[in-house]
Specification:
Blueprint: E1 2-3, H1 11-22, E2 26-30, H2 38-47, E3 53-60, H3 66-79, E4 84-89, H4 93-98, H5 106-121, E5 126-129, E6 134-138, E7 151-153, H6 157-166, E8 169-172, H7 178-188, E9 195-201, E10 203-204, H8 208-223, H9 228-231, H10 236-252, H11 256-262, E11 265-266, H12 268-280, E12 285-289, H13 294-308
Parallel strand pairs: 1-2, 2-3, 3-4, 4-7, 7-8, 8-9, 9-12, 10-11
Antiparallel strand pairs: 5-6
Length: 310
């Protein structure tokens, strides 16, 4: 499950405990400017659980110095060895501009940060003078015994190609369909041992029509500015044409197999079919966003646990 950026921070321990005790596998905490911070949320979730893995989606590469990012990740690994899934990405560039840290080349900067952080987590002594990262004889005093894979939270073809040669995996933003996963892995070069994490939006209902009606407005907002994940859908052109003709109602009544491709939306069986389709494409981690309302999201924990323990 994903912990929405708008949720009150104390709720993260409740979510983590319920997932840990109920058979859930992962909790993904979201760091978006200027909401809640990923590292502190992750630490809070890790220390109240015994086996739950906690992913961070994602740390903006330039929001922290690369050495500090490595220190933070190493500390989390010390708290919970083998249970940390750290994601690092470009960050939304308008947010980076607001903080005065927007790099001239986000792609080159992210690559430098990933390389530096990975080397530091491996215990190396690092001297590096790049376009963004400048380190002189830096070495972590307590690198993790088993360094985690660094996941790149990226979207575009050039960024995915960089991730394939530099990162240990990717985090693909919602809606991450099986067709998007195939396209993204092709851009990455299909590297061996690559960890693929995806985000989805969850809506399970006994009546799949009601689920579609609930999620149609969300899909409409995405179609206002579709990213590459949507454009990878094999029916994207037909989807846009349908929305142009019929609006939100046209999305609510579109074919069930379209919804099945887009996310775990519909009945429990529909959600299971979507998850299995993702796993068939090589996905290892699936973070499902609940509704933004805390009361509804808390109830949806039961849906997540049903899916995780199916």
């Amino acid at each position: 499950m994903c912990f929405d950026r708008t949720f009150p921070p104390p709720l993260v321990t409740d979510f983590a405990r319920r997932l840990d005790q109920g058979g859930g596998n992962q909790l993904w905490v979201i760091e978006d400017c200027f909401f809640t911070a990923g590292v502190s949320l992750a630490a809070s979730a890790l220390v109240v659980t015994d086996r739950l893995r906690v992913g961070i989606g994602i740390l903006p590469a330039v929001a922290r110095n690369a050495a500090v990012t490595a220190m933070e990740i190493a500390t989390l690994c010390g708290l919970a060895p083998g249970r940390v899934l750290p994601g690092i990405g470009h960050g939304v560039q308008s947010w980076m501009q607001q903080m005065g840290v927007r790099p001239a080349s986000p792609l080159a900067t992210l690559e430098e940060v990933l390389v530096a952080v990975r080397c530091l987590l491996d215990g190396d002594r690092v001297t590096m003078h790049g376009r963004h990262v400048h380190l002189d004889d830096v070495q972590l005093a307590q690198p993790p015994a088993d360094p985690p894979r660094l996941l790149a939270g990226v979207r575009g073809p050039r960024s995915l190609a960089m991730a394939g040669r530099t990162a240990g995996g990717v985090v693909l933003a919602e809606p991450a369909s099986p067709s998007y996963v195939r396209w993204a892995l092709d851009q990455c070069g299909n590297p061996d041992g690559f960890h693929v994490a995806v985000f989805s939006v969850l809506c399970v209902d006994d009546d799949r029509t009601r689920a579609y009606e609930t999620m149609a407005p969300w899909l409409a907002t995405l179609l206002a500015d579709p990213h590459v994940g949507l454009r990878a859908l094999p029916f994207f052109a037909d989807l846009v044409a349908r929305f142009d003709r019929h609006g939100v109602r046209g999305l609510a009544t579109m074919p069930s197999d379209w919804w099945l491709e887009i996310g775990p939306i519909g009945t429990v069986d529909d959600a299971v079919a979507h998850i299995e389709a993702l796993e068939a494409e090589g996905v290892h981690s699936i973070g499902m966003f609940p509704a933004p309302e805390v009361g509804i999201a808390t109830a949806q924990l039961d849906d997540v646990l049903r899916l995780a323990t199916r």
